[in-house]
Design goal:
This protein is mainly α. Helices cover 63% and strands 0% of the residues.
Length: 791
């Protein structure tokens, strides 16, 4: 009987039947109180409440009941919504009850299988971070001395310490996750502080974590292939544990810094090809040297990077000291980023009893008959336009209180959050782009409400099928990104990879990031003109076209940046095509005008346009686009791919349409940065690391994704060629392994592609020709054949 109940409730039979039934009768109005049984999240939460209710009523000595309950919990965790189930269980059994050594949550956890224990622990960590210590888009935005945050860190550490106490399996697993930085459920520095504090200032676990972290920190394969975000997490753990070790056993820390493992790790870091890897190595070297060496003998690197705000933040991690607090610190505390319901409700129509009746005394008026012949002296007026509200027969039902356009940002937020009033919602989204741009230059209203505005814009949904909804939403996000590119760029990237967004919402954010980077560089008008061209008429036979009602949903998935991406690729390949045309049309001496001369004229026009555009772009454009857009995007995607493959879970960004848009956005930002970027070496390293990850994925064989990957590699090669001989040499020396691997892959794509796939073959040919020219010039410089000496 119990097994039958488990198969019905915990395996999802009831959920699937209810969901299908509700979908079938969706046209029938049903009370909302029964919709939960067909919703996966709500149903899983109900299961969690049932489990916690049963666990709180079962006697600790009733082993049979606990075994039955464990069977139910194990099947519930495999339902597909473990986070919702675990959230209800630990919220009731841990946060609301006494946590003595024999508490009910511990009994339940100990009786689960190892696999279920690990799944429950992962889900619990994920829920703890989201609720109490949400990660910030940038480490600099995470102050280490915030009292409220320190209290939350202590409370979370108390929960984790209660769980891993006397459970060596979970403790060793947590230690491994902290060391490698690969666990997808551990994202922020505040949560890492809480997890490290849960070890309770015990000397042996702290030293073990420090030694393992240093071993991985100096591993050359780890430096070369691990995403930068994972290496940053490893660095943070090293600095935090070094601070603990310095306070607990300074002599042990000194022996560690004098060991061969530590010296090799720092040497490998300083010799790494990635500028970010070298930067992290210098941070660790300086920080640990300050702890163990006298002030006059401490390691110093006289670089501007070591005096930046981020470097000082990293070095201050050794001074962080967290203690295990009490679970009661977490009660009645929620995440500051939790969505709030709108306080603004739709305006009600004025009622009849509120209208004031006229109190004036009536008079008896005489009625005179006027003949129609006397109307000839008057001009006739046209009838006024009909109002939609005039069609209502009952005047008491007419709502004449029309919403006004928002004038302030707080009014705009109220309009966007008022999803119950279609007219006000439409007015808010249609005026958002212009209002944000207008208010950016005056006062601090946009700056004070930037995160709330971004949070609202990212989650907007077209509930009423409003005209141009997606265009207004996109333009609003672009306006916000252009206003505060560094902070909002990091915020939108963080939201893109961490928030629960639909594919449409993720696509809008990616397009906004790409187009805003172009606008910051002065290409806004050019791109707007390109995208506002009227669409070409569809000349295909009607039976070959989708109906208008289905075209928006199942039609072409081309994004607004497709045209810009193709334009950049064509600009790179055009000189190669003209050079080939010149070689096939005879010697230049017999020509009135060569193709290359036309290219020179166009190049001079582009240079003049670029000089005019330079006056309108920010001076620190390269730093803004690299630190606010490019590096956050590549790092977040790298750690997401690494974590999902490591944990064998689904990666939502490997959908062909979304992956194509992501790669196109990265290509657009990289091309906008240009060959004169001061950190071109770091950009090239991150782009090649991304390409190495992408070209081996099964989804890379999709035609749209394949073209995007080839375009990105072509952009990387072209930027380094345009930067001069130093950039060319970098491709065939420092990054030769990655470049040759992707070149061989592109060569294979060219050989296997059919003649119909013209664009793919053209991109592959352009890559091989450009790399061939680079290698020839580099060999010529080595042999001295390009010096121009005559004999």
């Amino acid at each position: 009987m119990w097994k039958e109940l488990i198969s019905l409730l915990a395996t999802g039979k009831v959920l699937s039947v209810a969901a299908e039934s509700l979908l079938t009768i969706k046209d029938i109005k049903l009370p909302r109180s029964i919709h939960w049984i067909g919703d996966g999240n709500m149903y899983a939460s109900w299961l969690g409440r049932c489990i916690s209710r049963m666990a709180s009523k079962v006697q600790s000595t009733d082993l049979d009941c606990w075994n039955y309950l464990v069977q139910f919990v194990g099947r519930s965790l495999s339902l597909g919504y473990p986070a919702q189930v675990v959230s209800e269980i630990y919220n009731t059994l841990l946060l609301q009850e006494d946590t003595s050594p024999d508490h009910r949550f511990g009994i339940l956890l100990d009786k689960l299988r190892r696999h279920d224990q690990l799944l429950l622990f992962k889900s619990l960590l994920h829920d703890l971070e989201i609720k109490f210590l949400p990660p910030s888009p940038s480490v600099v935005q995470s102050p280490l001395d915030d009292f409220n945050k320190s209290k939350a860190v202590s409370g979370v550490s108390a929960v984790v310490a209660t769980i891993i106490c006397d459970r060596g399996f979970l403790k060793s697993q947590l230690s491994e996750w902290l060391v490698t930085g690969s666990e997808i459920n551990i994202k922020g520095i505040d949560f890492r502080r809480a997890l490290l504090a849960s070890f309770g200032n015990q000397q042996d676990p702290i030293l073990e974590i420090l030694r393992k972290a240093l071993d991985i920190f100096g591993d050359q394969l780890y430096i070369k292939h691990t995403p930068t975000r994972g290496q940053e997490a490893n660095t943070q753990i090293i600095l935090l544990t070094a601070g603990y070790a310095h306070r607990l056993c300074p002599h042990q820390l000194r022996s560690i810094t004098q060991s061969g493992t530590y010296l090799t790790a720092i040497s490998n870091r300083l010799a790494a090809s990635s500028p970010r890897a070298r930067y992290l190595g210098m941070i660790v070297g300086i920080s640990l040297s300050k702890l163990v060496d006298p002030a006059d003998k401490a390691i110093k690197f006289d670089l501007e990077q070591m005096e930046s705000e981020e470097a000082l933040w990293y070095m201050n991690l050794t001074n962080v000291k967290d203690e295990v607090g009490s679970i009661s610190d977490l009660k009645h505390k929620t995440s500051p980023y939790a969505p709030k319901k709108s306080k603004h409700q739709g305006r009600k129509a004025p009622q009849a009893d509120q209208r004031k009746s006229s109190q004036a005394t009536s008079k008896v008026l005489s009625i005179e008959e006027v003949s129609e012949e006397s109307d000839g002296d008057f001009l006739s007026y046209e009838k006024p336009d009909t109002d939609a509200s005039d069609s209502e027969e009952d005047p008491t039902l007419i709502n004449r209180s029309k919403p006004n356009s928002p004038v302030y940002i707080r009014d705009l937020l109220a309009c966007l959050q008022d999803t119950g009033n279609a007219e006000r919602y439409n007015l808010g989204i249609s005026t958002a782009p212009t209002l944000i741009r207008r208010k950016t230059s005056f006062g601090t209203e946009v700056a004070e409400n930037s995160e709330a505005l971004a949070f609202t814009l990212a989650g907007l949904q077209d509930k009423y099928n409003l005209p141009k909804f997606q265009e207004y939403k996109l333009q609003s996000q672009i306006a916000l990104l252009v206003a505060y590119p560094l902070t909002m760029g990091r915020w939108f990237v963080h939201t893109l990879f961490n928030a629960d967004l639909s594919q449409s919402q993720q696509s809008t954010i990616l397009v906004a990031l790409g187009l805003s980077s172009r606008e910051l560089a002065g290409f806004g008008k050019e791109d707007s003109d390109a995208m506002s061209l009227p669409p070409a008429a569809d000349s295909s036979f009607p039976s070959k076209r989708l109906p208008s009602s289905l075209a928006n949903t199942y039609g072409g998935m081309n994004s607004p940046i497709d045209a810009i991406s193709k334009k950049l690729s064509q600009a790179t390949l055009k000189p190669l095509a003209l050079h080939a045309a010149e070689s096939l049309t005879g010697p230049n001496a017999l020509k009135v005008r060569t193709f290359s001369s036309r290219m020179e004229v166009e190049k001079r026009k582009q240079q003049k346009e670029q000089q005019r555009r330079q006056k309108a772009i920010p001076k620190d454009l390269h730093r803004i686009l690299s630190d606010g857009f490019f590096f956050p995007l590549t790092n977040a995607f790298g750690i997401a791919t690494y974590s999902t493959s490591y944990n064998n879970v689904h990666n939502p960004f490997l959908i062909p349409q979304l992956l194509q848009l992501f790669v196109q956005t990265v290509t657009l930002i990289l091309s906008t940065l240009g060959p004169n970027s001061p950190n071109l070496a770091a950009l090239t390293h991150e782009a090649l690391a991304l390409l190495i990850t992408l070209h081996n994925l099964p989804v890379a064989t999709e035609p749209t994704v394949l073209r995007a990957i080839l375009s990105l590699f072509l952009a990387v090669v072209d930027l380094n060629i345009s930067s001069g001989s130093v950039g060319e040499e970098r491709l065939v020396t420092e990054f030769v392994t990655q470049v040759m691997e992707i070149r061989e892959w592109a060569d294979g794509i060219f050989e296997r592609s059919s003649k119909e796939e013209e664009e793919v073959r053209m991109l592959c040919a352009g890559i091989m020709v450009k790399l061939g020219e680079v290698m020839e010039r580099y060999q010529g410089r080595l042999l001295g054949t390009n010096l121009g000496f005559g004999y």
